[in-house]
């Protein structure tokens, strides 16, 4: 497919921006200026000031002499880059590949996009109108190459579409500056009397190279299409992405549902063919007012099961605020994994189906309460109770080591040991009584001590001597003494859990 | 006379049908039996422990919660048979996963859902009970009212997943739609003869309410073979105390 590019030139980028923010400036000549070498130099001019003959690069004092009512604003560094980037992101609705063309332009790769707007001319008209309604004056052109589109946007007629393969003819009458050449080359061309591209385009390449350098030849062949010009898109296009532009802005929940259903169908069909499944999907809704609404869902197990994924999105639809309407839906699978073949399910039919249902349930839960609330534990090879378990990463993993059973552990473990008062004979006998939450317990039976050393390579501190005790009512507790007895402090006993 | 007998048969049959509608299945070869729990099973209609229904456990103290967790884990062992998964939903969980192994449950077959809001616990429980792929769902809640429990009961009638509700209430108990209300409290264990220390965990299992069954109370021990009923009254505690005094 022949590539097609659109170049957009914001002739009054920063001044238009200020006009939008301060409508009172609409009929006032004003400029942006920055201090260069101790004098104020104009960096941007609005259309009224330009009509009065003020140009960029002029000192402010001169301009003031020409137009006394001229207003001057301070230029801020990088303002235009930031502005361009924001506009570029908004332009994603017109094409997935948008590149910045600093300092005042954008390049869109519109290959295969224009038919959605009913043709190339209509596409450009739409862009011009949209930007005009927002308050930006743009000059725009479409061609087979970035170079030709750039040239025609700036030096040709606004809104022109160069037919495929006709870029050489279109360029002939333009000045050499349209080729994005360096200033020295341009000056040399001027000196030699080569005022338009026609006058040197048929010269032998060796001659041009000798006189104007390799750079000029590159620019020329980029404009003519004999050399590829790479574009750096603002957004990297995800390999698994589907787009759904809407003719009418969508404002209802049922409309959003239909859009999600359609997008999922086409995305899952593709994943199914490649036997892949989704772990994470982002749905971006581009609103008419330029905002982007975004929802994300994740799954515990790679899936391309449309009803399931749809259900997960269904939980989030209420959080999408359509405002005046959504004109473009983009679905991106940000994390895709190979799907384990369903043969396993064939053998253990029930177990396989159960797993499927379970993972879908967990997805639904994590969609509402967050995946950090779902825990599954594996044994960890530590004796220290708090460290004896670790989180499992998924529901299909198997523990690497078996669960230890040789030491009995309490059924309930307090997340933080509670301090208790005890009466205990020294040196290492279990307590006779202990007081916990105001209640005195008489210890009738006990087991221990079981000494658990703190892992010194992980943290510093005292060891613990654990006792299992049973009180007069038959309630069982896990108590420990922290460290050795010392003369200074005596009450370093804790309760850490309850046995069944 | 004949008429009376036929009436009795009729009523019996109707009762059985009602039980069937309420989810109590008659004992069949395939129905789940809990080894060692025969005397408790007898308290339920048809002498079958009702799975696929809601059971409620009252835990006024953390010690009770520990015992209840142990008892439920013991039930899960029989229900899971080392396949399948169950969900443990709570917003103040203190159960220590390795301890489940003591009662025969592989702790990695239990998925813990730790929530912040009490409200979400019931929502998550209802969602989980819809999932036929689960063996059981255990939910720790502060309180549950009739309509909430009824909702859960209706969901599980379709999915046949068993639900265990652990109530942490200290106050008045309200009536719920649960099939059974239990209270498991720890009682003094008995070490093996001649050995010091603690014995196997022992519980006093009280069945406070059973729909269409007979409430009762039993003393059980979780031994190395599983549930074991304690029949004889033990005097050893007194004896031990005396010997201690002498020592």
List keywords for this structure.
heterodimer, A: alpha+beta, Alpha-Beta Plaits, 6-stranded antiparallel beta barrel, B: 247 residues, Rossmann fold, 9-stranded mixed β-sheet, 7 helices, 34% helix
What does this structure look like?
The complex is a heterodimer of chains A (500) and B (247). Chain A has 500 residues and is an alpha+beta fold. Chain A folds into three domains: 1-237, Reverse transcriptase/Diguanylate cyclase domain (Alpha-Beta Plaits, 2-Layer Sandwich); 241-338, Dna Ligase, domain 1 (2-Layer Sandwich), CATH 3.30.1490; 412-498, no CATH class. Helices cover 30% and strands 30% of the residues of chain A. Chain A contains 15 helices and 21 strands. Chain A has helices at residues 13-21, 47-51, 60-66, 79-90, 120-134, 146-155, 167-171, 183-191, 198-201, 205-212, 214-224, 253-273, 306-314, 343-347, 349-369; strands spanning 5-10, 30-36, 39-45, 71-74, 97-101, 105-109, 138-143, 160-161, 241-250, 276-287, 292-303, 326-338, 374-375, 377-379, 389-391, 412-423, 433-436, 439-452, 464-471, 476-482, 493-498. In chain A, β5 (97-101) and β6 form a beta hairpin. The longest helix of chain A is centred in the middle third of the chain and has 21 residues, at 253-273. The termini of chain A are far apart. In chain A, 34% of the residues are buried. Residues 343-349 of chain A have low confidence and may be disordered. Chain B is an alpha/beta fold and 247 residues long. Chain B has one domain (48-188, 196-246): P-loop containing nucleotide triphosphate hydrolases (Rossmann fold), CATH 3.40.50.300. Chain B has helices spanning 2-21, 38-41, 62-80, 97-100, 118-129, 146-159, 236-246, and strands at residues 54-58, 85-90, 110-114, 134-141, 162-167, 180-187, 202-210, 216-223, 226-229. A nine-stranded mixed beta sheet of chain B has the order 3-2-4-5-1-6-7-8-9, with helices on both faces. In chain B, α5 packs parallel to α6 (146-159). The radius of gyration of chain B is 20 Å and the shape is globular. Mean pLDDT of chain B is 83; it is low at 234-247. The interface between A and B is large, with 55 and 55 residues.
């Amino acid at each position: 497919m022949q590539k097609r590019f659109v170049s957009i030139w914001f002739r009054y980028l920063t001044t238009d921006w200020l006009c939008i923010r301060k409508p009172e400036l609409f009929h006032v000549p004003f400029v942006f200026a920055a201090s260069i070498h101790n004098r104020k130099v104009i960096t941007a001019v609005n259309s009224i000031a330009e009509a009065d003959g003020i140009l960029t690069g002029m000192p402010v004092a001169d301009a003031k002499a020409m137009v006394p009512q001229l207003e001057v604003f301070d230029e801020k560094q990088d303002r235009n880059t930031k502005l361009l980037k924001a506009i570029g992101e908004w332009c994603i609705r017109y094409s997935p590949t948008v590149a910045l063309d600093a300092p005042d332009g954008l390049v869109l790769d519109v290959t295969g996009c224009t038919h959605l707007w009913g043709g190339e001319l209509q596409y450009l008209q739409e862009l011009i109108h949209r930007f005009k309604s927002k308050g930006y004056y743009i000059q725009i052109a479409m061609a087979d190459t970035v170079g030709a589109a750039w040239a025609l946007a700036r030096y040709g007629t606004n809104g022109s579409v160069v037919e495929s393969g006709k870029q050489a003819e279109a360029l002939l009458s333009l000045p050499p500056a349209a080729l994005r050449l360096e200033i020295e080359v341009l000056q040399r061309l001027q000196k030699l009397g080569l005022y338009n591209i026609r006058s040197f385009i048929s010269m032998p390449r060796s001659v041009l190279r000798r006189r104007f350098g390799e750079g000029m030849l590159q620019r020329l062949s980029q404009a003519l299409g004999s050399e590829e010009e790479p574009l750096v898109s603002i957004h990297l296009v995800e390999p698994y992405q589907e787009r759904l532009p809407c003719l009418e802005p969508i404002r209802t929940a049922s409309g959003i549902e239909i859009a999600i259903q359609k997008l999922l169908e086409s995305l899952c069909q593709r994943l199914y063919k490649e036997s892949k499944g989704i772990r994470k999907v982002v749905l971006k809704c581009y609103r008419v007012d330029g905002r982007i609404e975004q929802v994300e869902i994740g799954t515990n197990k790679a899936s391309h099961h449309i009803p399931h994924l749809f259900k997960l999105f269904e939980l989030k639809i209420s959080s999408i605020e359509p405002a005046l309407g959504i004109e473009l839906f983009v679905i991106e699978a940000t994390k895709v994994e190979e799907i384990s073949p369903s043969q396993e399910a064939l053998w253990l039919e029930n177990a396989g189906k159960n797993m499927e249902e379970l993972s879908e349930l967990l997805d639904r839960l994590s969609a509402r309460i967050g995946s950090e609330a779902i825990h599954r534990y594996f044994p960890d090879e530590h004796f220290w109770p708090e460290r004896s378990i670790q989180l499992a990463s998924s529901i299909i993993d198997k523990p690497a080591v078996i669960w230890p059973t040789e030491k009995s552990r309490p059924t309930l473990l307090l997340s933080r040991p509670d301090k208790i008062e005890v009466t205990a004979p020294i040196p290492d006998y279990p307590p006779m009584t202990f007081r916990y939450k105001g209640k005195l317990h008489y210890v009738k039976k006990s087991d221990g001590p079981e000494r658990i050393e703190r892992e010194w390579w992980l943290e510093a501190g005292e060891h613990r001597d654990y006792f299992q005790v049973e009180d007069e009512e038959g309630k069982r507790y896990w108590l420990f003494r922290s460290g050795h007895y010392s003369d200074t402090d005596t009450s370093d006993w804790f309760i850490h859990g309850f046995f069944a | 006379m004949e008429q009376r007998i036929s009436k009795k048969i009729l009523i019996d049959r109707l009762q059985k049908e009602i039980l069937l509608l309420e989810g109590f299945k008659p004992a069949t070869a395939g129905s789940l039996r809990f080894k060692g729990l025969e005397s408790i099973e007898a308290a339920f209609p048809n002498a079958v422990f009702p799975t696929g229904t809601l059971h409620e456990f009252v835990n006024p103290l953390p010690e009770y919660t520990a015992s209840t967790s142990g008892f439920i884990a013991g039930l899960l062992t029989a229900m899971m048979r080392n396949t399948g998964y169950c969900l443990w939903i709570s917003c103040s969980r203190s159960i220590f996963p390795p301890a489940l192994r003591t009662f025969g449950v592989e702790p990695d077959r239990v998925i813990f859902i730790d929530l912040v809001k009490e409200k979400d616990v019931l929502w998550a429980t209802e969602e989980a009970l819809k999932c036929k792929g689960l063996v059981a769902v255990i939910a720790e809640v502060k309180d549950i009212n009739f309509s909430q429990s009824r909702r859960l009961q209706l969901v599980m009638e379709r999915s046949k997943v068993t639900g265990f509700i652990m109530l942490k209430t200290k106050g008045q108990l309200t009536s719920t739609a649960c099939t059974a209300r239990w209270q498991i409290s720890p009682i003094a264990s008995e070490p093996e003869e001649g050995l010091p220390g603690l014995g196997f965990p022992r519980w006093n299992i009280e069945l406070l309410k059973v729909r269409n069954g007979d409430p009762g109370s039993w003393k059980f021990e979780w031994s190395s073979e599983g549930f074991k009923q304690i029949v004889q009254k033990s005097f050893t505690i007194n004896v031990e105390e005396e010997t201690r005094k002498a020592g």
